[in-house]
Amino acid sequence: MMYVKIPKSRIGALIGKNGEVKKRVESISGVKMEIDSREGDVVIDESSGDPLMALKVRDFVMAVGRGFSPERAWRIFNEDVYFEVIDIKEFAGKRESRIRVLRGRIIGKNGKTRRIIEELSGASLSIYGYSVAIIGSYTQIETAKHAVEMLLRGSKHATIYHYLEKKRRENKYRALDYYYIQ
Q1: CB 48 within 8 A of CB 12
Q2: What's the confidence (pLDDT) of residue 1?
Q3: Among candidates 60, 55, 28, which has minimal Cα distance to 124?
Q4: N or C of the chain: less Cβ packing under 10 Å?
Q5: Would you identify the CATH topology of the domain 2-77?
Q6: Separation between Cα atoms, residue 23 and residue 17, nearest integer Å
Q7: Which CATH class is domain 82-181?
Q8: What are phi and psi of 7, to 5 degrees?
């Protein structure tokens, strides 16, 4: 059994209209979930299916709990797609005003910075509460995570954009090399 606690405000997104999301997760994965909507507790029974799939279900539940819509979180069930969370408090301390400022730096004006990080890294981002959640392949997560951490440490936005463009070029060349070597 695995236990995950998510915010009560995100339980509705996890269950879905008429339980559709929960049913779909259980049918895709073969893993059963019990959701306590009053407390925000989710119990994942890994004995009912593949242990790797149980970990994917746990990541899906955590992703929805960290602000991803179920539609964006389905990506976790693909092979070689991972989930990671960055705690903003590690960079800001406990001051609420500083946390708000850092969240704003990651989101950017009208969501511009978040959108650029997503487009250039290929990862999906969700900024919710005191955390930044990332879904993507290993290289996508590493690129997006580094960009977010640079922002949290105070780097200028232009520096982050140049870093992301450089990484995207490198990944394109790596993909072309792989394609032509095959």
Answers
A1: no
A2: 84
A3: 60
A4: C
A5: Ribosomal Protein S8; Chain: A, domain 1 (3.30.1370)
A6: 10
A7: alpha beta
A8: -60, 140
